[in-house]
Design brief:
The complex is a heterodimer of chains A (122) and B (440). Chain A has 122 residues and is of the alpha/beta class. Chain A has five helices and five strands. The model of chain B is unreliable at 434-440 (pLDDT under 50). The chains are: A alpha/beta (122), B alpha+beta (440).
Protein backbone atom coordinates (compact mmCIF):
# COMPACT_ATOMS: atom_id res chain seq x y z
CA UNK A 1 0.00 0.00 0.00
CA UNK A 2 1.38 3.44 -1.01
CA UNK A 3 1.97 6.16 1.56
CA UNK A 4 2.34 9.27 -0.60
CA UNK A 5 0.00 12.21 -0.07
CA UNK A 6 -0.11 15.43 -2.07
CA UNK A 7 -1.65 18.30 -0.11
CA UNK A 8 -2.88 21.21 -2.25
CA UNK A 9 -3.76 24.00 0.16
CA UNK A 10 -2.83 27.69 0.42
CA UNK A 11 -3.12 28.23 4.17
CA UNK A 12 0.43 27.73 5.59
CA UNK A 13 -0.60 26.79 9.12
CA UNK A 14 -3.15 24.26 7.92
CA UNK A 15 -0.45 22.78 5.68
CA UNK A 16 1.89 22.55 8.65
CA UNK A 17 -0.68 20.87 10.90
CA UNK A 18 -1.87 18.34 8.32
CA UNK A 19 1.67 17.55 7.28
CA UNK A 20 2.60 16.90 10.91
CA UNK A 21 -0.27 14.57 11.71
CA UNK A 22 0.13 12.60 8.50
CA UNK A 23 3.90 12.39 8.80
CA UNK A 24 3.58 11.06 12.34
CA UNK A 25 1.33 8.34 10.95
CA UNK A 26 4.01 7.37 8.45
CA UNK A 27 2.84 9.23 5.36
CA UNK A 28 5.13 11.01 2.98
CA UNK A 29 3.54 14.43 2.43
CA UNK A 30 4.29 16.75 -0.45
CA UNK A 31 2.61 20.13 -0.77
CA UNK A 32 1.52 22.57 -3.42
CA UNK A 33 0.09 25.93 -2.40
CA UNK A 34 -1.72 27.41 -5.36
CA UNK A 35 -4.22 26.43 -8.01
CA UNK A 36 -1.95 27.14 -10.92
CA UNK A 37 0.04 24.08 -12.01
CA UNK A 38 -1.64 22.01 -9.31
CA UNK A 39 -2.96 19.54 -11.87
CA UNK A 40 0.52 19.18 -13.36
CA UNK A 41 1.86 18.56 -9.83
CA UNK A 42 -0.66 15.74 -9.34
CA UNK A 43 0.28 14.18 -12.66
CA UNK A 44 4.02 14.47 -12.01
CA UNK A 45 4.05 13.26 -8.42
CA UNK A 46 1.42 10.50 -8.84
CA UNK A 47 0.52 10.42 -5.11
CA UNK A 48 -1.66 7.73 -3.54
CA UNK A 49 -4.07 10.36 -2.20
CA UNK A 50 -4.68 14.02 -3.04
CA UNK A 51 -5.97 16.41 -0.39
CA UNK A 52 -7.41 19.35 -2.29
CA UNK A 53 -8.70 22.70 -1.02
CA UNK A 54 -11.55 24.31 -2.99
CA UNK A 55 -10.60 27.97 -2.66
CA UNK A 56 -7.11 28.29 -4.11
CA UNK A 57 -5.37 31.25 -5.70
CA UNK A 58 -5.20 31.00 -9.46
CA UNK A 59 -7.56 28.10 -10.00
CA UNK A 60 -10.33 26.50 -7.99
CA UNK A 61 -10.17 23.01 -6.56
CA UNK A 62 -13.24 22.11 -8.62
CA UNK A 63 -11.38 22.81 -11.86
CA UNK A 64 -8.39 20.79 -10.71
CA UNK A 65 -10.62 17.86 -9.73
CA UNK A 66 -12.33 17.98 -13.13
CA UNK A 67 -8.92 17.78 -14.85
CA UNK A 68 -7.84 14.85 -12.68
CA UNK A 69 -11.01 12.92 -13.47
CA UNK A 70 -10.56 13.68 -17.16
CA UNK A 71 -7.01 12.37 -17.37
CA UNK A 72 -6.94 8.61 -18.04
CA UNK A 73 -3.59 8.18 -16.29
CA UNK A 74 -4.82 9.52 -12.95
CA UNK A 75 -8.60 9.56 -13.18
CA UNK A 76 -9.02 6.93 -10.47
CA UNK A 77 -6.86 8.73 -7.92
CA UNK A 78 -8.55 9.20 -4.50
CA UNK A 79 -9.24 12.89 -3.83
CA UNK A 80 -10.24 14.27 -0.42
CA UNK A 81 -11.68 17.75 -0.86
CA UNK A 82 -11.51 20.38 1.88
CA UNK A 83 -13.63 23.48 1.89
CA UNK A 84 -14.76 26.31 4.13
CA UNK A 85 -17.87 26.44 2.04
CA UNK A 86 -20.13 23.83 3.56
CA UNK A 87 -23.09 24.65 1.37
CA UNK A 88 -24.86 21.70 -0.14
CA UNK A 89 -24.35 23.32 -3.53
CA UNK A 90 -20.57 22.91 -3.25
CA UNK A 91 -20.88 19.35 -2.04
CA UNK A 92 -23.13 18.61 -5.00
CA UNK A 93 -20.65 20.13 -7.44
CA UNK A 94 -17.82 18.10 -5.92
CA UNK A 95 -19.83 14.88 -6.03
CA UNK A 96 -20.82 15.47 -9.63
CA UNK A 97 -17.16 15.92 -10.48
CA UNK A 98 -16.34 12.62 -8.82
CA UNK A 99 -14.79 13.58 -5.48
CA UNK A 100 -13.88 10.60 -3.28
CA UNK A 101 -14.53 12.32 0.06
CA UNK A 102 -15.70 15.83 0.99
CA UNK A 103 -14.84 17.50 4.30
CA UNK A 104 -15.82 20.96 5.54
CA UNK A 105 -13.64 23.26 7.62
CA UNK A 106 -13.15 23.28 10.53
CA UNK A 107 -12.37 19.55 10.53
CA UNK A 108 -10.60 17.48 13.17
CA UNK A 109 -7.17 15.93 12.71
CA UNK A 110 -8.60 12.53 13.52
CA UNK A 111 -11.16 12.83 10.73
CA UNK A 112 -8.54 13.82 8.15
CA UNK A 113 -6.26 10.99 9.15
CA UNK A 114 -9.12 8.48 9.09
CA UNK A 115 -10.26 9.69 5.68
CA UNK A 116 -6.78 9.37 4.17
CA UNK A 117 -6.36 5.85 5.58
CA UNK A 118 -9.79 4.82 4.26
CA UNK A 119 -9.15 6.21 0.79
CA UNK A 120 -5.91 4.30 0.37
CA UNK A 121 -7.37 1.09 1.78
CA UNK A 122 -10.29 1.14 -0.69
CA UNK B 1 -53.89 69.03 2.05
CA UNK B 2 -55.95 65.90 1.98
CA UNK B 3 -57.69 65.36 5.29
CA UNK B 4 -57.46 61.64 5.00
CA UNK B 5 -53.73 61.62 4.28
CA UNK B 6 -51.13 60.33 6.71
CA UNK B 7 -48.86 62.86 8.41
CA UNK B 8 -45.88 62.13 6.14
CA UNK B 9 -47.98 62.61 3.04
CA UNK B 10 -49.25 65.91 4.40
CA UNK B 11 -45.72 67.10 5.08
CA UNK B 12 -44.77 66.29 1.49
CA UNK B 13 -47.84 67.99 0.08
CA UNK B 14 -47.27 71.13 2.12
CA UNK B 15 -43.55 71.25 1.23
CA UNK B 16 -44.28 70.94 -2.46
CA UNK B 17 -47.03 73.52 -2.21
CA UNK B 18 -44.56 76.13 -0.99
CA UNK B 19 -41.95 74.82 -3.49
CA UNK B 20 -39.39 73.93 -0.88
CA UNK B 21 -36.80 71.26 -1.73
CA UNK B 22 -36.67 68.14 0.43
CA UNK B 23 -33.03 68.82 1.22
CA UNK B 24 -33.83 72.38 2.38
CA UNK B 25 -36.47 71.21 4.83
CA UNK B 26 -34.23 68.40 6.09
CA UNK B 27 -31.39 70.83 6.69
CA UNK B 28 -33.64 73.32 8.45
CA UNK B 29 -34.82 70.75 11.01
CA UNK B 30 -31.47 69.03 11.38
CA UNK B 31 -32.19 65.62 9.83
CA UNK B 32 -30.90 63.91 6.70
CA UNK B 33 -32.78 64.17 3.43
CA UNK B 34 -33.05 60.39 3.29
CA UNK B 35 -34.67 60.28 6.73
CA UNK B 36 -37.11 63.01 5.73
CA UNK B 37 -37.88 60.98 2.63
CA UNK B 38 -38.82 58.01 4.82
CA UNK B 39 -41.06 60.28 6.94
CA UNK B 40 -42.73 61.73 3.87
CA UNK B 41 -43.48 58.26 2.57
CA UNK B 42 -44.92 57.30 5.96
CA UNK B 43 -42.16 54.80 6.61
CA UNK B 44 -41.07 56.51 9.83
CA UNK B 45 -43.34 57.82 12.55
CA UNK B 46 -43.02 61.43 13.56
CA UNK B 47 -44.05 63.42 16.59
CA UNK B 48 -42.78 65.68 19.36
CA UNK B 49 -40.20 68.34 18.70
CA UNK B 50 -39.39 67.20 15.15
CA UNK B 51 -43.03 67.54 14.13
CA UNK B 52 -43.21 71.00 15.69
CA UNK B 53 -39.99 72.05 13.93
CA UNK B 54 -41.19 70.78 10.56
CA UNK B 55 -44.57 72.48 10.98
CA UNK B 56 -42.82 75.73 11.88
CA UNK B 57 -40.50 75.54 8.87
CA UNK B 58 -43.47 74.80 6.62
CA UNK B 59 -45.37 77.72 8.22
CA UNK B 60 -48.32 75.61 9.32
CA UNK B 61 -49.76 74.61 12.63
CA UNK B 62 -48.59 71.17 13.76
CA UNK B 63 -52.21 70.13 14.14
CA UNK B 64 -52.71 70.70 10.42
CA UNK B 65 -50.21 67.94 9.81
CA UNK B 66 -51.68 65.52 12.34
CA UNK B 67 -55.36 66.47 12.45
CA UNK B 68 -57.53 63.51 11.67
CA UNK B 69 -55.09 61.12 13.26
CA UNK B 70 -57.95 58.70 13.60
CA UNK B 71 -58.05 58.53 9.81
CA UNK B 72 -54.40 57.57 9.73
CA UNK B 73 -55.02 55.04 12.46
CA UNK B 74 -57.87 53.49 10.50
CA UNK B 75 -55.69 53.38 7.39
CA UNK B 76 -53.03 51.62 9.42
CA UNK B 77 -55.51 49.10 10.76
CA UNK B 78 -56.76 48.37 7.26
CA UNK B 79 -53.19 47.66 6.24
CA UNK B 80 -52.89 45.23 9.15
CA UNK B 81 -55.99 43.41 7.94
CA UNK B 82 -54.83 43.48 4.32
CA UNK B 83 -51.54 41.86 5.29
CA UNK B 84 -53.38 39.01 7.01
CA UNK B 85 -54.47 36.25 4.71
CA UNK B 86 -57.93 34.89 5.48
CA UNK B 87 -58.65 37.64 8.01
CA UNK B 88 -61.91 36.88 9.87
CA UNK B 89 -64.95 39.01 9.09
CA UNK B 90 -64.73 40.58 12.52
CA UNK B 91 -61.32 42.05 11.68
CA UNK B 92 -62.84 44.15 8.94
CA UNK B 93 -64.67 46.27 11.52
CA UNK B 94 -61.67 48.51 12.13
CA UNK B 95 -63.73 51.59 13.09
CA UNK B 96 -65.40 49.83 16.00
CA UNK B 97 -62.10 48.42 17.18
CA UNK B 98 -60.35 51.80 17.04
CA UNK B 99 -63.24 53.44 18.89
CA UNK B 100 -63.28 50.94 21.71
CA UNK B 101 -59.55 50.29 22.03
CA UNK B 102 -57.65 53.26 20.55
CA UNK B 103 -54.43 52.50 22.42
CA UNK B 104 -54.45 48.84 21.36
CA UNK B 105 -55.22 49.89 17.82
CA UNK B 106 -52.22 52.21 17.84
CA UNK B 107 -49.99 49.44 19.21
CA UNK B 108 -51.22 47.08 16.50
CA UNK B 109 -50.47 49.59 13.76
CA UNK B 110 -47.01 50.24 15.17
CA UNK B 111 -46.34 46.50 15.35
CA UNK B 112 -47.35 46.15 11.70
CA UNK B 113 -44.97 48.93 10.74
CA UNK B 114 -42.23 47.24 12.73
CA UNK B 115 -42.93 43.94 10.97
CA UNK B 116 -42.60 45.67 7.62
CA UNK B 117 -39.31 47.26 8.69
CA UNK B 118 -37.99 43.88 9.82
CA UNK B 119 -39.10 42.22 6.59
CA UNK B 120 -37.10 44.78 4.69
CA UNK B 121 -34.13 44.10 6.96
CA UNK B 122 -34.44 40.35 6.39
CA UNK B 123 -34.54 40.93 2.66
CA UNK B 124 -31.45 43.09 2.77
CA UNK B 125 -29.47 40.72 5.04
CA UNK B 126 -30.54 37.69 3.05
CA UNK B 127 -29.49 39.39 -0.14
CA UNK B 128 -26.20 40.23 1.51
CA UNK B 129 -25.53 36.75 2.88
CA UNK B 130 -26.21 35.22 -0.50
CA UNK B 131 -24.29 37.53 -2.74
CA UNK B 132 -22.05 39.88 -0.79
CA UNK B 133 -18.47 39.20 -1.94
CA UNK B 134 -16.93 40.79 1.15
CA UNK B 135 -18.97 38.68 3.54
CA UNK B 136 -18.27 35.47 1.64
CA UNK B 137 -14.56 36.15 1.63
CA UNK B 138 -14.49 37.19 5.31
CA UNK B 139 -16.36 34.06 6.42
CA UNK B 140 -14.02 31.88 4.39
CA UNK B 141 -11.04 33.56 6.04
CA UNK B 142 -12.46 33.07 9.53
CA UNK B 143 -13.26 29.39 8.91
CA UNK B 144 -9.82 28.72 7.49
CA UNK B 145 -8.16 30.35 10.49
CA UNK B 146 -10.37 28.43 12.91
CA UNK B 147 -9.38 25.22 11.13
CA UNK B 148 -5.69 26.00 11.49
CA UNK B 149 -6.14 26.80 15.20
CA UNK B 150 -8.15 23.67 15.85
CA UNK B 151 -5.68 21.37 14.12
CA UNK B 152 -2.69 22.98 15.84
CA UNK B 153 -4.33 22.96 19.27
CA UNK B 154 -5.25 19.28 18.88
CA UNK B 155 -1.66 18.44 18.02
CA UNK B 156 -0.37 20.31 21.08
CA UNK B 157 -2.92 18.67 23.35
CA UNK B 158 -2.71 15.14 22.00
CA UNK B 159 1.00 14.73 21.28
CA UNK B 160 2.75 13.98 24.54
CA UNK B 161 6.22 13.47 23.05
CA UNK B 162 6.31 16.60 20.88
CA UNK B 163 9.87 17.90 20.66
CA UNK B 164 10.70 21.45 21.67
CA UNK B 165 11.21 22.84 18.15
CA UNK B 166 7.80 21.63 16.98
CA UNK B 167 6.20 22.88 20.17
CA UNK B 168 7.64 26.35 19.62
CA UNK B 169 6.59 26.35 15.99
CA UNK B 170 3.01 25.36 16.78
CA UNK B 171 2.77 27.87 19.61
CA UNK B 172 3.90 30.58 17.24
CA UNK B 173 1.32 29.45 14.67
CA UNK B 174 -1.38 29.52 17.34
CA UNK B 175 -0.45 33.04 18.35
CA UNK B 176 -0.41 34.27 14.74
CA UNK B 177 -3.69 32.56 13.88
CA UNK B 178 -5.43 33.79 17.00
CA UNK B 179 -4.45 37.35 16.12
CA UNK B 180 -5.67 36.83 12.58
CA UNK B 181 -8.92 35.35 13.84
CA UNK B 182 -9.47 38.27 16.21
CA UNK B 183 -8.95 40.76 13.40
CA UNK B 184 -11.17 38.83 10.99
CA UNK B 185 -13.95 38.42 13.55
CA UNK B 186 -13.74 42.09 14.49
CA UNK B 187 -14.03 43.14 10.85
CA UNK B 188 -16.98 40.81 10.39
CA UNK B 189 -18.79 42.07 13.48
CA UNK B 190 -18.23 45.68 12.48
CA UNK B 191 -19.59 44.93 9.05
CA UNK B 192 -22.68 43.11 10.33
CA UNK B 193 -23.24 45.68 13.07
CA UNK B 194 -24.08 48.17 10.38
CA UNK B 195 -27.41 46.34 10.19
CA UNK B 196 -30.06 48.08 8.15
CA UNK B 197 -27.88 51.13 7.71
CA UNK B 198 -25.42 48.78 6.06
CA UNK B 199 -27.75 48.62 3.09
CA UNK B 200 -26.07 51.83 2.05
CA UNK B 201 -22.61 50.42 2.74
CA UNK B 202 -20.15 50.25 -0.10
CA UNK B 203 -18.30 47.12 -1.15
CA UNK B 204 -17.88 47.54 -4.88
CA UNK B 205 -16.81 50.49 -7.07
CA UNK B 206 -20.36 50.72 -8.44
CA UNK B 207 -21.63 51.03 -4.85
CA UNK B 208 -19.31 53.97 -4.29
CA UNK B 209 -20.60 55.68 -7.41
CA UNK B 210 -24.19 54.98 -6.32
CA UNK B 211 -23.48 56.54 -2.91
CA UNK B 212 -21.98 59.61 -4.60
CA UNK B 213 -24.97 60.04 -6.92
CA UNK B 214 -27.40 59.45 -4.05
CA UNK B 215 -25.81 62.28 -2.08
CA UNK B 216 -26.50 64.57 -5.02
CA UNK B 217 -30.07 63.28 -5.40
CA UNK B 218 -28.99 62.20 -8.91
CA UNK B 219 -29.00 65.83 -10.02
CA UNK B 220 -25.60 67.33 -10.81
CA UNK B 221 -26.26 71.03 -11.28
CA UNK B 222 -22.60 71.76 -12.08
CA UNK B 223 -22.78 69.51 -15.14
CA UNK B 224 -26.00 70.95 -16.57
CA UNK B 225 -23.87 73.45 -18.45
CA UNK B 226 -20.23 73.60 -19.44
CA UNK B 227 -19.17 75.52 -16.33
CA UNK B 228 -18.33 72.45 -14.28
CA UNK B 229 -16.31 69.36 -15.09
CA UNK B 230 -16.62 65.77 -13.94
CA UNK B 231 -13.06 65.93 -12.64
CA UNK B 232 -13.82 68.95 -10.44
CA UNK B 233 -17.00 67.38 -9.16
CA UNK B 234 -15.39 64.16 -7.96
CA UNK B 235 -12.43 66.00 -6.45
CA UNK B 236 -12.45 65.20 -2.75
CA UNK B 237 -15.70 63.18 -2.95
CA UNK B 238 -15.57 61.07 0.20
CA UNK B 239 -17.67 58.25 -1.30
CA UNK B 240 -15.27 57.61 -4.17
CA UNK B 241 -12.49 55.86 -2.28
CA UNK B 242 -11.08 53.53 -4.91
CA UNK B 243 -9.46 54.43 -8.25
CA UNK B 244 -11.94 52.11 -9.99
CA UNK B 245 -14.86 53.98 -8.47
CA UNK B 246 -13.42 57.32 -9.58
CA UNK B 247 -12.96 55.94 -13.08
CA UNK B 248 -16.56 54.71 -13.15
CA UNK B 249 -17.78 58.03 -11.75
CA UNK B 250 -15.89 60.02 -14.39
CA UNK B 251 -17.50 57.91 -17.08
CA UNK B 252 -20.99 58.36 -15.59
CA UNK B 253 -20.52 62.08 -15.08
CA UNK B 254 -19.19 62.56 -18.60
CA UNK B 255 -22.30 60.82 -19.86
CA UNK B 256 -24.45 63.08 -17.66
CA UNK B 257 -22.86 66.22 -19.06
CA UNK B 258 -23.26 65.02 -22.66
CA UNK B 259 -26.92 64.12 -21.99
CA UNK B 260 -27.53 67.55 -20.45
CA UNK B 261 -26.11 69.23 -23.53
CA UNK B 262 -28.48 67.26 -25.78
CA UNK B 263 -31.54 67.75 -23.61
CA UNK B 264 -31.36 70.80 -21.30
CA UNK B 265 -33.10 70.44 -17.97
CA UNK B 266 -35.43 73.43 -18.28
CA UNK B 267 -36.59 72.29 -21.73
CA UNK B 268 -37.23 68.79 -20.45
CA UNK B 269 -39.25 69.97 -17.44
CA UNK B 270 -41.31 72.23 -19.71
CA UNK B 271 -41.95 69.37 -22.12
CA UNK B 272 -42.98 67.01 -19.32
CA UNK B 273 -45.32 69.64 -17.89
CA UNK B 274 -46.86 70.17 -21.31
CA UNK B 275 -46.95 66.64 -22.76
CA UNK B 276 -46.51 64.28 -19.83
CA UNK B 277 -43.83 61.70 -19.15
CA UNK B 278 -43.94 59.48 -22.21
CA UNK B 279 -40.24 59.09 -23.11
CA UNK B 280 -41.09 58.26 -26.72
CA UNK B 281 -42.89 61.56 -27.16
CA UNK B 282 -40.01 63.45 -25.60
CA UNK B 283 -37.46 61.63 -27.74
CA UNK B 284 -39.39 62.51 -30.90
CA UNK B 285 -39.94 66.11 -29.88
CA UNK B 286 -36.27 66.86 -29.23
CA UNK B 287 -34.79 64.40 -31.71
CA UNK B 288 -32.79 62.87 -28.89
CA UNK B 289 -31.75 59.24 -28.39
CA UNK B 290 -34.19 57.32 -26.15
CA UNK B 291 -31.48 56.25 -23.66
CA UNK B 292 -30.58 59.91 -23.20
CA UNK B 293 -34.23 60.68 -22.50
CA UNK B 294 -34.38 57.88 -19.91
CA UNK B 295 -31.28 59.14 -18.12
CA UNK B 296 -32.44 62.77 -18.22
CA UNK B 297 -35.86 61.94 -16.81
CA UNK B 298 -34.16 59.95 -14.06
CA UNK B 299 -32.20 63.06 -13.07
CA UNK B 300 -35.42 64.91 -12.26
CA UNK B 301 -37.03 64.91 -8.84
CA UNK B 302 -40.34 65.45 -7.18
CA UNK B 303 -39.75 69.19 -7.04
CA UNK B 304 -39.41 69.26 -10.82
CA UNK B 305 -42.19 66.99 -12.07
CA UNK B 306 -44.20 65.98 -9.00
CA UNK B 307 -42.78 62.46 -8.73
CA UNK B 308 -39.46 60.69 -8.36
CA UNK B 309 -38.55 58.48 -11.31
CA UNK B 310 -36.36 55.39 -10.97
CA UNK B 311 -34.03 53.91 -13.55
CA UNK B 312 -32.28 50.59 -13.98
CA UNK B 313 -29.95 49.61 -16.78
CA UNK B 314 -28.27 46.31 -17.50
CA UNK B 315 -25.72 44.89 -19.86
CA UNK B 316 -26.22 41.89 -22.14
CA UNK B 317 -25.66 39.47 -19.26
CA UNK B 318 -28.53 41.03 -17.32
CA UNK B 319 -26.21 42.52 -14.69
CA UNK B 320 -27.56 45.79 -13.35
CA UNK B 321 -25.17 48.61 -14.22
CA UNK B 322 -27.33 51.56 -13.19
CA UNK B 323 -29.63 51.53 -10.17
CA UNK B 324 -31.53 54.69 -9.34
CA UNK B 325 -34.05 53.57 -6.72
CA UNK B 326 -37.63 54.70 -6.45
CA UNK B 327 -39.67 54.39 -3.25
CA UNK B 328 -41.72 51.19 -3.23
CA UNK B 329 -39.86 49.47 -6.06
CA UNK B 330 -37.16 47.32 -4.51
CA UNK B 331 -33.89 46.75 -6.37
CA UNK B 332 -31.55 43.87 -5.51
CA UNK B 333 -28.17 45.03 -4.32
CA UNK B 334 -26.39 41.85 -5.26
CA UNK B 335 -27.30 39.09 -7.61
CA UNK B 336 -29.94 38.88 -10.24
CA UNK B 337 -33.27 40.67 -10.30
CA UNK B 338 -36.68 39.22 -11.13
CA UNK B 339 -36.62 37.78 -14.66
CA UNK B 340 -40.15 39.07 -15.20
CA UNK B 341 -39.06 42.70 -15.17
CA UNK B 342 -39.86 44.40 -18.47
CA UNK B 343 -36.15 45.29 -18.54
CA UNK B 344 -35.36 41.68 -19.38
CA UNK B 345 -38.22 41.38 -21.83
CA UNK B 346 -36.62 44.33 -23.63
CA UNK B 347 -33.20 42.65 -23.46
CA UNK B 348 -34.54 39.72 -25.46
CA UNK B 349 -36.29 41.99 -27.97
CA UNK B 350 -33.70 44.60 -28.99
CA UNK B 351 -35.05 47.83 -30.45
CA UNK B 352 -38.60 47.05 -29.35
CA UNK B 353 -40.08 49.58 -26.90
CA UNK B 354 -41.99 47.91 -24.07
CA UNK B 355 -44.44 49.79 -21.84
CA UNK B 356 -45.95 47.91 -18.91
CA UNK B 357 -47.66 48.58 -15.62
CA UNK B 358 -46.09 46.41 -12.94
CA UNK B 359 -46.71 45.62 -9.29
CA UNK B 360 -44.11 44.06 -7.02
CA UNK B 361 -45.30 41.13 -4.92
CA UNK B 362 -45.22 41.04 -1.15
CA UNK B 363 -45.71 44.76 -0.73
CA UNK B 364 -48.67 46.98 -0.02
CA UNK B 365 -50.10 47.28 -3.54
CA UNK B 366 -48.12 49.87 -5.42
CA UNK B 367 -48.01 50.13 -9.15
CA UNK B 368 -45.42 51.50 -11.49
CA UNK B 369 -45.51 52.49 -15.11
CA UNK B 370 -42.38 51.16 -16.75
CA UNK B 371 -40.81 51.87 -20.11
CA UNK B 372 -38.07 49.55 -21.28
CA UNK B 373 -35.90 49.25 -24.34
CA UNK B 374 -32.72 47.52 -25.46
CA UNK B 375 -30.34 48.65 -28.15
CA UNK B 376 -26.82 47.95 -29.34
CA UNK B 377 -24.04 50.13 -28.01
CA UNK B 378 -21.59 51.04 -30.69
CA UNK B 379 -18.17 51.83 -29.36
CA UNK B 380 -15.78 50.36 -31.85
CA UNK B 381 -15.55 48.85 -35.29
CA UNK B 382 -18.73 47.73 -37.01
CA UNK B 383 -17.41 44.19 -37.07
CA UNK B 384 -16.80 44.10 -33.30
CA UNK B 385 -18.99 41.72 -31.28
CA UNK B 386 -22.37 43.40 -30.72
CA UNK B 387 -22.76 44.87 -27.23
CA UNK B 388 -26.30 45.41 -25.99
CA UNK B 389 -27.63 47.44 -23.11
CA UNK B 390 -31.17 47.69 -21.83
CA UNK B 391 -32.84 50.33 -19.68
CA UNK B 392 -36.09 50.57 -17.77
CA UNK B 393 -37.60 53.81 -16.56
CA UNK B 394 -39.82 53.34 -13.48
CA UNK B 395 -42.54 55.85 -12.69
CA UNK B 396 -44.99 55.65 -9.77
CA UNK B 397 -48.48 54.98 -11.15
CA UNK B 398 -51.94 55.25 -9.69
CA UNK B 399 -53.41 52.04 -8.33
CA UNK B 400 -56.72 52.54 -10.14
CA UNK B 401 -55.15 52.17 -13.57
CA UNK B 402 -57.35 50.15 -15.91
CA UNK B 403 -54.35 48.74 -17.77
CA UNK B 404 -53.38 45.10 -17.23
CA UNK B 405 -50.91 44.77 -14.40
CA UNK B 406 -47.84 42.53 -14.59
CA UNK B 407 -47.01 41.01 -11.18
CA UNK B 408 -43.26 40.95 -10.61
CA UNK B 409 -40.82 40.48 -7.73
CA UNK B 410 -37.44 41.84 -6.68
CA UNK B 411 -35.42 38.62 -6.83
CA UNK B 412 -36.48 35.01 -6.39
CA UNK B 413 -34.89 34.44 -3.02
CA UNK B 414 -37.04 37.08 -1.32
CA UNK B 415 -40.14 36.92 -3.47
CA UNK B 416 -43.41 35.50 -2.20
CA UNK B 417 -44.99 35.07 -5.64
CA UNK B 418 -46.55 31.61 -5.75
CA UNK B 419 -46.39 29.27 -8.76
CA UNK B 420 -44.09 31.54 -10.74
CA UNK B 421 -42.82 29.90 -13.91
CA UNK B 422 -39.75 32.14 -13.86
CA UNK B 423 -38.67 31.19 -10.34
CA UNK B 424 -34.96 30.22 -10.15
CA UNK B 425 -34.73 29.25 -6.49
CA UNK B 426 -37.04 28.85 -3.48
CA UNK B 427 -37.99 31.91 -1.49
CA UNK B 428 -37.01 32.28 2.16
CA UNK B 429 -39.95 34.57 2.86
CA UNK B 430 -42.89 32.30 2.28
CA UNK B 431 -43.81 28.75 1.60
CA UNK B 432 -44.15 29.19 -2.10
CA UNK B 433 -44.12 26.60 -4.79
CA UNK B 434 -42.86 26.34 -8.32
CA UNK B 435 -39.18 26.47 -9.13
CA UNK B 436 -38.63 26.98 -12.81
CA UNK B 437 -35.27 26.90 -14.50
CA UNK B 438 -33.95 24.15 -16.70
CA UNK B 439 -33.44 20.58 -15.70
CA UNK B 440 -30.00 20.12 -17.16
Amino acid sequence: MGRDVLLIEDEPNIIEAIRFILARDGWHVQTHSDGKNAFEAVRDKQPDVVILDVMLPGRSGFEILRDIRGDDAISGMPVLMLTAKGQSKDREIAENLGVSRFMTKPFSNTDVLAAVRDLVAQ
Amino acid sequence: MSRGALTGTRIRERRMMIRMRQSELARAVGISASYLNLIEHNKRRIGGKLLVDIAKTLSVDASALTEGAEVALLDGLRQVVAAQTDAPQEALQVEGFADRFPAWAQILVERQERVQELERLVEMLSDRLTHDPFLSSALHEVLSTVTAIRSTADILADTTDLDRDWQMRFHRNLRDDSHRLAEGAQALVTYLDDGAEGAQEKTLPQDEVDAFLRRHDYHLADLEGQAGTPEALIEGAAELESPHARELALRALGQYQADAAHLPRADLIAAVTENGLDPGVISARFGVDIMTVFRRIASLGEEDIGLTPGLVMCDGSGTLTVRKPVAGFELPRYGAACPLWPLYAALTHPMTPIAAVVEQSGRPPQRFQTYAICRPRLGGAFSDPPIFEAAMLILPATSDSAEPVLPIGMSCRICSQDNCAARREPSILADVSGVGGNAL
